[in-house]
Task: inverse folding
């Protein structure tokens, strides 16, 4: 009986694993293309609310066919034109996505997704803080099918229902362990 109670409590705890959303889920983000310096706005795409796979910018850097997609935990730039080009070598030639409405979760990590195939693109071209992600692809070439994909993580807070299940699981485990100790003391 006591082992069954412990197993049920452990199962409740396992089911209560926190459901974490990506930092951009439901967030309103602002997108800009920066060129020729990080402080120079070349294009301003304004604000877009991210829901599912959302195109937050088209024709990045005035290059037709370069679209920037966002999901809750990913940014992906896709080049879909039938010609090759390169990003002019300046101090900055890329984009920034940022949260100026405080609707996104704090960004705690950005990594390059395995779908990325832009030659020469590495993490030295990406930097971020809690509210901004900068991508500088200056001097790199792109052609049909080039992809730059970034995975984004946050220190998101679990949903309230998950916390309730987790706390209930802890309580059940504690109760089962306490009753087990009392029984052991009574028989000792």
Result:
């Amino acid at each position: 009986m006591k082992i069954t109670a412990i197993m049920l409590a452990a199962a409740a705890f396992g089911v209560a694993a926190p459901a974490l959303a990506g930092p951009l889920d439901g967030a309103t983000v602002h997108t800009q293309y920066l060129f020729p310096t990080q402080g120079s706005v070349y294009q301003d795409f304004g604000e877009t609310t991210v829901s599912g796979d959302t195109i937050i910018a088209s024709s990045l850097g005035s290059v037709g066919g370069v679209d920037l997609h966002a999901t809750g935990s990913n940014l992906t730039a896709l080049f879909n034109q039938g010609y090759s080009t390169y990003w002019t070598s300046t101090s900055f030639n890329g984009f920034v996505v940022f949260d100026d409405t405080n609707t996104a979760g704090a960004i705690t990590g950005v990594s390059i997704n395995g779908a990325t195939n832009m030659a020469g693109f590495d993490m030295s071209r990406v930097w971020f803080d809690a509210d901004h992600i900068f991508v500088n692809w200056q001097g790199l070439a792109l052609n049909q099918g080039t992809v730059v994909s970034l995975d984004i993580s946050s220190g998101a807070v679990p949903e309230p229902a998950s916390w309730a299940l987790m706390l209930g699981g802890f309580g059940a485990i504690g109760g089962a362990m306490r009753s087990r100790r009392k029984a052991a003391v009574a028989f000792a």
User: Anything to note?
Assistant: The chain has two domains: 2-19+159-187, 28-154. The chain has two helices and twelve strands. Confidence is low (pLDDT under 50) at residues 1-20.
